[in-house]
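go over whats below:
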Amino acid sequence: MLRTVDLRGQARPQDYRALVPRAAFDVEAALDVVRPICDDVAARGTDALLEYAERFDHVRPHHLRVPAVELERAAAELDPDLRRSFETAIARRRQVAETERGQTTADVTVAPGATIGVRQVPVDRVGLYVPGGLAPLSSSVIMNVVPAQVAGVGQIALASPPQAEFDGLPHPAILAVAHLLGVDEVYAVGGAQAIAMFAHGVPDLCAPVSLVTGPGNIYVTAAKRLLRGLVGIDSEAGPTEIAILADESADPAYVAADLISQAEHDPMAASVLVTDAPTLADAVRAEVATQVADARHRDRITTALSGEQSGIVLVDDLDQGIAVVDAYAAEHLEIQTRDAARVATRITNAGAIFIGGYSPVSLGDYCAGSTHVLPTAGCACHSSGLNVRSFQRSVHLIDYNRDALAEVAHAVEVFADAENLPAHGQAVSVRFGGRS
């Protein structure tokens, strides 16, 4: 497990992104699989959804839209400790989301009588996807719903795969969290067909949405790519990943546990340690072997840690380590070094940064208050995690009076003439008696 990539002595930061471990994730190839599914859902609606549930989820749901009584029952039957955990996660995520919302309106006076207003307008209706495969991610309900609610989204619909062991309903923990959050439009629909349902709408079942968010497998991601434009999407999520930047001060047991926790998600999950301390690397390998032996999902973890997407990257020093993790642009980046908070300020590219030995990624997955829907596959160099602004649009309101327009009329006419668009200039000059 955990192959070694030795970058010591290599001082070409432009090469780091290609050299560090990363999973292959061919969304383009999956498009050929999901295109006929999405087209079929658009054409046949409910009948297609039921047939795909039987084919892919091995159960035919009694109801594609989950009845409210099932949501209430799931919440009522929650283990009290689990309910308290859900409520803590909801409260902390909502508290952070309130700060993300920030100012919703602003006016800028660019000249007397010339005002540009900036208004943040919530998306009217969103579809939230919650995976239900190897791990039923009830936490993703919180991470999708809370920022959407704080943003002011009027209608929230949620889809998660039907489960044969729960009589064709999504996992009860997912239903329970939806109920705790006040979401009653829940569908027992999974995979690419759920994204197609949201994008196209299904008569007498689900109205189309304006935006689809939430992680999923490669077929969910391919469906989002295929239908982007018809519907907005948050991102194209690939396999989950963790990078840990650590020096000799790090506790190898903590580092190993955190690498393993991410590998537990999926055989394609990526776990990468970047360190300038070969002794730490050796100690982490030993800890990984010990901890994996006792893990419930050791087969899945072993596959992930042994894959090309995982490994230990040796660097000369902390400066090179920072350059490497910046090039990697990890979904989750842990800093386990001396003065970790200062090191974190030097990081440019990461979906979320976990500082010090007591801020593991699993904290962020559940109860930190941060989002866990984060950019993968190096996209953290240009994209942010799911937050309140993901569910809002920025609209400009242009309000000029006659004198303000007159002040810039000539500039507009000259600009329009330079672009060979004379009617644009005429649209201004006509207001002052001018004619072309």
